[in-house]
Amino acid sequence: MVTSLDRKLARDLWRMRGQAFAIALVIAAAMSTFVMSLGVHRSLIETRDAYYQRNHFADVFASMTRAPRSIVDRVRELDGVARAEGRIEQYATLEMPGRTEAIRAVINSVGDGGKSDLNQLVILRGRGPGIDESGEVVVDKAFADANGIVPGDEIDAVIYGNRDRLKIVGIGLAPDYIWAIAPGELVPDESRFGILWMGQKALEAATNRTQAITSIAVVLDRGAVESEVIRRLDALVEPYGGTGAYGRDDHPSNAFLDNELMQLEAMTRVIPPIFLLVSTFLVYIVLGRLIRTERQEIGLIKAFGYSSYAIGWHYLKFALAVAAIGIALGSLLGWWMGREMTTLYGDYYRFPFLDYRVSAPVFVTGGALAAGSAALGAMGGVRTAVRLNPAVAMSPPQPPVYRVGMVERVSRRAGFTSVGHMIVRHIARWPGRSAVTTFGVALSLALLFSTVQFIDSSRIMLNDFFFRAQQQDLTVSFIEARNEDVIYELAALPGVIAVEATRTVPVRLVHGPRSERAAIEGAARDATLTARIDADGRAVPLPVSGVMLSRLLAERLDVRAGDEVEIELLGGRRTKTLVPVTSTIDELVGTRAYAENAVVERMARDGAVVGAAQLKIDPAHRDDIIAHLNEMPIVLGVTERVAAMRLFEAMIDRNIITMIGFYVAFASAIAVGVVYNSARILFSERAHELATLRVLGYHKTEVATVLLGELALLVVLALPVGCFLGYWMAQLMTAMFSSDLFRLPFAPSRATYGFAAVVILIAALLTAAVVIRRVTGLDMVRVLKSHE
Amino acid sequence: MHGPLPDAHSVILRSHERAATSYHRSMADEEAPASKSAFNGRDLRKIYVTGETEVQALRGVDLDIAVGEVLVLLGPSGSGKSTLLNIIGGLDRATSGTLWYRDTELTALDDADLTRFRRANIGFIFQFYNLIPSLTARENVQLVTDIAADPMPAEEALERVGLAARMDHFPAQLSGGEQQRVAVARAIAKRPGVLLCDEPTGALDSGTGVRVLETLARANTELGTTLILITHNAGIAAMADRVFHFLDGRIASIVVNETRIAAAEIKW
Ligand SMILES: Nc1ncnc2c1ncn2[C@@H]1O[C@H](COP(=O)(O)OP(=O)(O)OP(=O)(O)O)[C@@H](O)[C@H]1O
Ligand SMILES: [Mg+2]
Hints:
The structure holds 2 protein chains of 2 kinds. Helix content of chain A is about 55%, strand content about 20%. In chain A, the strands form 3 sheets. Chain A has a 6-stranded mixed beta barrel. In chain A, β13 (about 495-510) and β14 form a beta hairpin. In chain A, α7 packs parallel to α10 (about 360-385), α7 (about 250-295) packs antiparallel against α14 and α19 (about 640-695) packs parallel to α21. Chain B is globular and about 50 Å long. Chain B has 6 helices and 10 strands, in the order βββαββαβαααβαβββ. Chain B has one domain (about 5-265): P-loop containing nucleotide triphosphate hydrolases (Rossmann fold). The interface between A and B is medium-sized, with 32 and 35 residues. The complex binds adenosine-5'-triphosphate (ATP) and magnesium ion (MG). Magnesium ion binds near residues 81 and 82 of chain B.
C-alpha cells in the first residue's frame, strides 16, 4: 500500500532529483569500484587456484646444473615430500625469419604427448610432442599469438650450441608460466621470449643429458614445513650444482601474480571507502537541509498523529532510496568494468581459462556498505526530525543568528564590501557544511592525485633503470662464464665502442643461524655502463673490497657493515668464502648483493670473470653486431636496452590512458556530487537574499558572485587541503602496493599536483555553472512574496 | 522624445513641489520644466498565465504620477496593487501597455537596463523587511551605497531613521520596527527618485508603524522623493496627496486630499 508519506517521498525524490542523482553517482562510484576490484580479485584467485589444482602446480622448486634422473626417487623419500618430478629446462635462441633481435626460449622436457605429473601442460591446439620425436615442440599461447605461430610451423633454434629445426605440433600453457620473463629482462615481452615443451628423450638427446635432469618440482605432504623440505632438498641436490630450492612465494610466475593480487586488494581497501565517506557527508548535508526546510511540515504531520518513528523512517527511506539507485547503478557499472579488466588480465597473464564471476556476497556486501554509509549520513537529520517537538516546529524558525567572529576581524581589515561579508559570514555560520564541501572536494583531488602519481613512480623507475642504472646498448649473456679474452674479442668487433664485463652468480649467504639465497652482481669498479641506484635516486659506488648487501638482505641476515658473512657459491664449483660486508644499499626491488669483479672471481676461483658483457655500440652497426653475436655459439642471449625501454614505456602509456580516464571520471564524480549539492543548498538557502540583492539593483552577474564567491572560496581552500591529503594518501597507497621485495618509488611531481587540481577545478566550475543558471532564472517577485 | 501629456484630471500642482534638483536622476538628460511627471502609464495590462488558467492582474491602468508626490494605493486583496508597484519599480514587466519614467520608456527596457534603472532611481520597502541576516544594519545599508552613484553615507541614512546607536547590530538583534527602519535607511541611502513601499507597516503595531511612516515622509519632504505606498490601512491614506482605489485590476477612483496630515498624527 502506498501511504501518503510514501507519495511525499517519491515527490521529494523527484523534486530533488539533481541532488539525489549526484549523491547516487558517488555511491555508484563506491559500489562499482568495490564490485570491480573485489570481483576481479576473487575471479583471478579462483581461476588461479583452480588452475593450480587441476594442473598440479608444485610447492617447491629446485634447479641444478645436472643431476641423474635417479635423484628424483631420493627426493620422493625425503620427509615432507609427497610427490616429485624432474625435468630438463634448457635455454635456447630462436631464429625467426625477418627478425634481427635475439629471440629466446626456455624448453621444458615433458613425457609422451606432453604429459607430466606436476606443472601439467594444457594443450590448447594441436597435440603434445612425442617423447622421442626430436624437434617436436609445443609453444606457449602468448608467444604463438605474438608471433603468428600455428601448429605445423617450423622454427630454427640453437640449443646447447647445436642448430636444430623445431616443429610446432601444438599450442599450450602451463601453471608455472602464468607470467614469464626472460632472464635478465625487466619487462616481459611475449614476442621475444617463448616457453617451449619438448619430449623428454628428445630434449635429453638435444642437450646431451641422457637420464639427467636440471630441475625438480616437489609437492609437499599436508602439514609439511616448507623451509624444512627446502633445507633437505638443498642438501640432496647440492653436489649437482643446485642453485637453491625455493617455494611458491619465490616462484617468479606465482610471485608476480601474487603481487598483482595484493595491489588489487589494496585498491578495494582504499578507494571504495573514500567514495563511501563522501556519500555519507553528502547525505548528511542534503538531508539535514531538507529536514530544516520541512520543519513545519514535520510538525504538522506529527500533530496529525504520526509517530516520531514513522517520520524518522520516512527520512531514512529517502537516504536509502538514493543509496538504492547508486547501488543498482554501481553494480551494473562495476560488473561491466570488472569484465573488461578481467579481459585485460587475460591478455597479460597466461591462463587457459578465465572465469569472471562476481558472487552474490560481493554485491550484498557492497550494497550493505553503501546503504550503511547513506544511513549513517542520514542519522543526524533523522534524529532532528524524530526529536522535533510539534508545537515548536509549527512556529516559524528563528532567523539564523550571525555573530561578529574571528573571520570578521580579518574581513574587516581586508576592507571587504558588504557582499564580501555575506560570503565570509555564511561560511562561518555553517562551519560543518562548509567543511564538508571543502573536505569532499579535497578528497576528490586527493584520490585523483594519489592514483595519477603512480605514473610518476613508473617514470622514476624507468629513468633509474634504463637511463642511470643501465647505459649499455646491448647485454650479451654467455652459456658459461668466460675469461677476459671474450671482452677483447667483442671489443674488436666493428662498431663496438665499449665493452664491460659483469657477472652474476647465485649464492647462499650465511650469518650465524640465518641463511639467504641471493645473487651477487659483479662489475668493475670503474664501470661506466652499469650503476646501482638506491631508493633515493642516488648512484652508489661498488665497495673496493668485500660485498655490499641490499638493505632488506642485510636485515634478513641480521648483518651490519663491518660484519662478515659466509658466501657459498651455488651451481658450478661450490666454494665457501668468508667475506666482509662493506656497506648496504637501500634498493626498491629485490634482495641482491654487489661486489667488485675481482671479489666475485676470488669466490668463484674459476678464472672466468665474464658472465655477461655490456656493450656500447654505434647504432649504425647494430644489425651486424647482433647478427654476429647470434652466430657465436657461446652466446646465450642478447638483450637490447632500447627495446626493453620502449616496451616499458608502452606499458606505462597504456596504463596512463586507462588509469587517467578511469580516475578522472571517478574523482570528478566526487567533485561534481559535492559541489552540486553544496551549490543547490546554498542557492535554496540564499534565494531570498539573492532576490533582495536583485531588487536593490544588483545585476545577475553580481548576484551570482555571492554564490560563486562562497563556492570558489571553499573549493580554493580545498586545493591545498586536497594536495596535503593526496600526498598522505599516495604514501599510504604506495606502501600498500609495496611488499618486502618490491617497493614503488614515491616522488610525486609538481605536474601531478597541477593536473589533479586543474581537473577538479574544471569539474567544480562546470557544476557551479549549472547552478548559477538558476540565479539567472530567479523570480524576484515570487521569492519576495514568501516570508523567508 | 517626450512622454505623453498628463491627463488633466490627475495633474496636481503642489505648493511644495520643487524644481528638479540634483538628487533626481533619470536615464536621459534632464530638462527642467516647472512641473514634472515621474511616471506616465497608458493601458497597462498584466496577465499571468499558469498552465491553462489566465489571471488578469491589471486590466488597463492609466496613471500619471508627479515628481515629489505622495501616493497611496488602496484596494481589496488581489486587486492588483502589488502587481502595479512591481511594474513601476522595474521588478516585473507589463504584458502590454506603455510606462515611462521621466524620459525613459520602462516598457522598452531589457533586463540589464531595468536593473540599472532600479539601481539608480528606486528604493523598495516590503512588508517583510528583507534584510540580509548575515549583515549588520550598517552593512545592509552599505549594500546599496556600494553600488549607488551618489549615495549618502550609510551612517547618515541610519541616523535619519533614528538608528545611529544600533548600526552594528545584526537583524536578529533588532525588533521588527527597527528592522523595517533599517530597510527604510537602505532604501533612502542612495537618494532615490522614487520610494516604493508594499505594506511597509503590515507587520508592525501602530506606534512602530507610525515611526516608519514618519521616516518615509521625511524622505519625501527633505529629499523630494516621490513616495508610492500600498496599504490596507485607510488611515494611512490621510498622509497622501492622492489615493488610488483599486478594484479588480483597475483604478476605480482617485481621491485628491486637499489637506494632508503629518505621519505622526496617523492612528490605527
Ligand atoms: N505570479 C503570479 N502568478 C499568477 N497570478 C498572480 C501572480 N502574482 C499575482 N497574481 C494574481 O494577480 C492578482 C493581483 O495580485 P496582486 O499581488 O497584485 O494583488 P494585491 O492587490 O497586491 O493583493 P494583496 O493586497 O493581497 O497584496 C491576484 O489575483 C493574484 O492572484
Ligand atoms: Mg500585495
